[in-house]
Design goal:
Length: about 250
């Protein structure tokens, strides 16, 4: 005689597959929790990126972000650092190339080279470019500027801004109607260097500035002949992209 299955038997049988199913769901839940734990979601950066999208799509005037959030700068830090490293390498190569040129031409004691976060500084000491009390470029100095211009026309430097500064010592100018004071001499020297780059060597005028500081930006005390010779100089500063953008904005 067949035994009739009770309702309790069905309940016990159904409970078995439910246990297996709940274990599977629990395992899936743990898997997704682990995935979330391994991920690195920065809500602030995500919000900043979304705001920048709103600006670029024209919601804001000029396509700019709502706020100058630092998180956008942080998100672009890796790309900017890569570009800066490439630029630093370019400037180091420029410095090495110029050093080799100056040594081969016996000018290593007349021209100092320095590299910092602003860019590359070429310091033409005393009479490297001009005779004493004069502002006409010496013939041999034109060869140096010509060599420099060829490098600055290369792709890696063609957008760099160039500052030219004239400096003097504290000795007054004697017997010169053309340069009543050191102000006129320092300004004219810087201007003549810039004019040579532009008019003779065909460089872009918007890349240059010329300044004269007379005796008021010394690099040494004006108390000995040696120190005064250090202060009589022309500085050419080739700026990095960051500083170039600043100077170009000023000129617009």
């Amino acid at each position: 005689m067949r035994k009739r299955r009770s309702s309790n038997d069905f309940e016990n049988e159904g409970g078995t597959w439910m246990t297996t199913y709940s274990d599977l769901v629990t395992l899936l839940l743990c898997f997704f929790v682990l995935l979330f734990a391994f991920s690195t979601i920065d809500a602030q950066k995500f919000e900043a990126i979304m705001k920048s999208f709103q600006g670029s799509l024209g919601v804001l005037r000029g396509g700019r972000t709502i706020q100058d959030a630092p998180y956008i700068e942080e998100a672009l830090q890796e790309e900017r650092t890569t570009k800066e490293l490439e630029e630093i390498r370019d400037f180091r190569k420029l410095k090495e190339e110029l050093e080799e040129y100056f040594i081969s031409n016996g000018k290593e004691n007349e021209i100092l080279l320095g590299l910092d976060d602003r860019g590359l500084l070429l310091r033409f000491k005393d009479n490297a470019l001009f005779d004493s009390g004069r502002a006409e470029l010496k013939p041999e100095s034109k060869q140096i500027l010509r060599f420099l211009s060829e490098i600055l026309k290369r792709d890696e430097f063609k957008d760099k801004f160039i500052c030219v500064e004239g400096h003097t010592d504290t000795d007054p100018i004697l017997y010169s109607s053309k340069f009543p004071t050191n102000w006129e001499l320092s300004v004219t020297r810087a201007s003549n260097v810039v004019r040579y780059f532009i008019e003779e060597l065909g460089m872009n005028p918007t890349r240059f500035s010329a300044s004269g500081y007379s005796e008021y930006h010394p690099v040494a005390p004006n108390d000995t002949r040696e120190n005064k010779s250090q202060n009589r100089r022309v500085d050419i500063l080739i700026l990095t992209s960051e500083y170039s953008e600043y100077y170009l904005d000023l000129n617009q």
